[in-house]
Amino acid sequence: MFASIFVLLYAAHMLSDYPLQTDHQASCKANRGAAHIDQTAHITALVIAALVLA
Question: Does the global pTM surpass 0.70?
Fold first, then answer.
């Protein structure tokens, strides 16, 4: 169970960090803006929901 959750959380992080991240979010990443954190949280929640529903 832990391994599958880890893989899904890692996949959600990579998905929100690279293909779904805007140029503005990437350039302001050091500031830790709320937009990047919100996007990461939403993608993570979607991936966890997919795990629960699967």
Answer: no
Query: Residue 51 and residue 8: Cα distance in Å, rounded?
Result: 8
Kindly state the tokens that stand for 11. Answer: 């996949």
Could you tell me where the DSSP H helices lie in 1-54? 2-17, 23-27, 34-53
Q: Would you say 47 and 11 are in contact if contact means Cβ atoms under 8 Å apart?
A: yes
Residue 27: per-residue pLDDT: 76
What's the rounded Cα separation, in Å, for the pair 20 and 22? 6
Site of tokens 């919100």: 38
